[in-house]
Amino acid sequence: MADEKKPGLFEKGGKLYWLHSSIDAFDTFLRVPGTVTAKGAHVRDGIDLKRVMIMVVIALVPAALFGMYNVGLQTSTLYGLNWTFWHMFFYGLLRMLPLFVVSYVVGLGIEFASAQIRGEEVNEGYLVTGFLIPLIVPVDVPLWMLALAVAFSVLFVKEVFGGTGMNIWNPALVARAFLFFSYPSSMSGSSVWVSKTWAGLGNVDAISAATPLAIAHDSGIEGLSSQYSFMDMFWGFIPGSTGETSVVAILIGAFILVWTGVASWKIMFSSIAGGLLVGWLGQIAGATTLPCYYQLVMGGFLFGSVFMATDPVTAAQTETGKWIYGFLVGALAVVVRLWNPGYMEGMMLAILFMNTMAPVIDHCVVSARTGRRNKKAVTA
Amino acid sequence: MSNNLALKKGLNVPVKGAAAPVVIKTVSPDVVAVKPTDFFGLVPRLLVKEGDAVQAGSPVMADKMHPEILFTSPVSGTVQEVVRGAKRKLLAVLIKADAKQEYVDFGKQAPQNADEVKELLLKTGLWGSLVQRPYGVMASLDATPKSIFISTFNTAPLAADNDYVLGDALADLQAGVTALAKVAPVHVSLHKGETAFGKLKDAQIHVVSGPHPAGNVGVQISHIDPIKKGDIVWTVSPLLLAAFGHVINTGKLDLTRKVAVTGPAAEKLGYVVCLPGTPVKAITDVNENVRVVGGDVLTGESLGADGYLGFFQNQLTLLKEGYEREWFGWAKPFRPKVHSSSWCYFSWLTPKKEYDMNTNLHGGPRAFVETKCFEDVTPMDIFPIYLIKACLAGDIEKMEKFGIYEVLPEDLALCDYVDPSKNEIQAYIQQGIELMIKEMA
User: Fold this and answer.
1) ipTM of the complex
2) ω into residue B213 within 30 of 0, thus cis?
3) In chain B, whose CA is at the least distance from the CA of A378?
4) Which residues 252-311 in chain B show a CB within 8 A of chain A?
């Protein structure tokens, strides 16, 4: 037990004191710390960041499980393999497992090391980030690329800013953006979104499995309807990154997040509203033939709205700001989808852009309200 | 201006161990302590030496800057010991009580104008009961407050029930209110449904409802008559105001009060009649590994088993120290013994349940992540997280802008409680206030 070694060895002055952050992390993972309140309120709420973070992971589980099944389903369909349900699921599980392992080993390794260097406790934020990253990259992404992206994101997006709670951008999305811009051939196009390498069947590159977004981009509602129905997309039986396809699974997660209050329903709601509005305007303006609600079920829109845009650290912090922030995330994502010829999915960049703008939104909201209060003082 | 104020935000922390409205004992202590540390910012000057005889109401110490501000003995007896700490800081004056209480006679006469009121407050040692906002310091002599606020109810966890404690002191309260009304307009707030204090005259009455901190006078001020830069507002607890009224009505300083003995670790719950400065051990039995908090669990001061009840306090809360370490605490689906206002646990299933709380922090300190919870428990027109960060950064302009004049640490005490990152919000606010005092003086 970590605890038995603790006296002396890992305490201040002990030989292995430099390891104390890691030991503390394992120790407090197993048992609630015995720290008592020293100042301020004498009793405290049972909630801590570990619980908050694990709630997000739990909310992600339905999307992850469905995603694994869907990985198998897509491969089976593409190659005409007629796999059983469990065959599909275990295929997906085996394909996803290395991604999770790499994501957590690399990410947590860096987190532990930097906590150690700073002499602080290890922060739980990566529990969520590490779970998100495998769900938003192509299944077949080479593991070394993933490791590189994770390392880049944790080091340069989180640690240099001071760790969890201090970062400006969502680290999971930056990892994806890193891959997207560094290795576009592994991250985009119509051949990356269905797992093939292990199937060992045929010339892999020649087989294309375009995502609904790509199809709609090229051939509109008619081309899309000929391949996938709305309900296919709603349930999630479509190619795409592992976590994003099933609206149902994501809605279960959204329900958990909103119920527990971990994520802001205002951001989710306004992001969807923004996406719908722009989708509708686009349809009227003739930029697309898709009805606006199609925007919600295709690509990463809903996954981004529910799990990415709502990250409390990188989103707007004021309640009014959350409405504005969420609306602009949704609106921008669909703007990119409809009016950008080169890139068919706008969610990632919309969120990263709005992460950047969130402090400005908050600043405006706060200034407006404190200004209003001071004005009242003059007239009263 | 509305006289009805319904507050929605806030939280009643469900601690077990409320005091039943019964007097369980009356304590005539051997020794009573007068503590300068009860008054924020006071630099005391000692007026007595060991062996001096004092009466209830005799001055024991004064403010070094303003020698007319006196602090008086609550009992008659002889000065037994002057307790000093590091750098000879005066910690307490211990007075050995006589068997029979003798009072200084302040004269049974109602003060006629503001100057007489102030003079009587100074003479009786009750000037210290006036808390001046902004910053929660002792009232300054030359300031004229724009208003005086009295909250007649306390929503803090397990707080003493003022209806019970002051139910028979209405005449004294009225005398106190009438006197203070000569200094500045007095605002009195009542809890919804309560009527006993509603009959007070010479004051504007406000009915306030809602969960804690609705009873905090700071929260009420921010809704009724917000403090702007340059404003000065005084607040006084009804307990001490009644003592002042008692002086007016009888000429005697009698600080005897009913103290609520509360909390999950208290052996006997109920009210104890005693004086401020009474040793904790005379009031209640204290077991090992129990923390004695003077006041409520959110804002109280840890007195220690050998401590003395404070000047402002009429509640003791006894809590077990939470050294025990729970296996997989954060990962368990259910933790029936731990309360959480967050819906990440299942405390919402049992809204009426009271919890055997201890002093465990339930986590480790982290950077701010989830901050909406602060707004949910702060029913004021401020952005708590921005104010807290401004205090941490020591940015005077931003502290002003985000409302440092309106808050005391007690108004944000619930933020301490709900924060998943376990930050010491009250300490941060205090740090900000101390910086403001230093920089703006």
Assistant:
1) 0.91
2) yes
3) B228
4) 291, 293, 297-300, 302
In a domain, residue B159? The reply is: yes
CATH number at residue B78: 2.40.50
Distances in Å between the Cα of A236 and the Cα atoms of A29, A89, A239, B352, B421 are: 35, 14, 8, 42, 36
Domain that holds residue B35: 31-97
Chain A residue numbers with beta carbons less than 8 Å from the beta carbon of B300 are 42
A163 CB neighbours in chain B (<8 A) are 367
Question: Between the CA of residue A117 and those of A23, A121, A366, B143, B356, what are the distances in Å?
Answer: 14, 10, 36, 52, 39
A52/B344 touch (CB, cutoff 8 Å), yes or no: yes
Asked if residue B75 is part of any domain, the answer here is: yes
Residue A119 pLDDT level (bands cut at 50, 70, 90)? confident
One domain for residues B45 and B144: no
Q: Is residue B19 part of a domain?
A: no
Q: Residues B133, B220: one domain? A: yes
The total domain count for chain B is 3
Record: contact B362-A42, CB cut-off 8 A: no
Which one of A32, A54, A164 has the shortest CB-CB distance to B362? A32
3-class SS of residue B414: helix
From A329's Cα to the closest Cα of chain B, the distance in A is 20
Residues B159 and B86 in one domain: no
Contact B322 A259 (CB under 8 A): no
Q: Return the percentage of chain A with pLDDT > 70, whole number.
A: 90
Query: Domain ends where: B71, B97, B123?
Result: B97
Tell whether omega for the bond before B29 is within 30 degrees of 0, i.e. cis.
no
Q: Clarify whether residues B80 and B142 are in a common domain.
A: no
The domain ranges of chain A are 1-32, 49-204, 233-241+263-366
Nearest C-alpha in A relative to B385:
A317
Claim to verify: residue B140 and residue B235 sit in the same structural domain: yes
Q: What is the predicted pLDDT for the residue at A2?
A: 46
Do B91 and B178 lie in one domain? The reply is no
B132 in the same domain as B188: yes
At B272, which helix (H) or strand (E)? strand B270-274
Residue B386 lies in a domain: yes
Q: What is the pLDDT of residue B128?
A: 94
B340 near A CB under 8 A: yes
Bridge-partner residues for B131, per DSSP? B138, B235
Q: Is B342 on the interface with A (CB under 8 A)?
A: yes
Chain A nearest-CA distance from B361, in A, is: 5
Residues 6+ apart with CB under 8 A from B328: A30, A31
Q: Is B231 on the interface with A (CB under 8 A)?
A: no
Contacts of A44 in chain B (CB under 8 A): 360-363, 416-417, 422
pTM: 0.91
C-alpha dihedral, A267 to A270 to A276 to A279, nearest 10°: -80
Mean pLDDT by 10 residues, chain B (441 residues): 80 94 92 94 92 94 94 94 92 93 89 92 94 92 92 94 91 94 94 78 92 94 90 95 95 94 94 95 92 94 93 94 85 87 89 92 88 91 93 93 92 94 94 93 71
Q: What is the pLDDT of residues A94-111, one digit of tens each?
A: 999 999 999 999 999 999
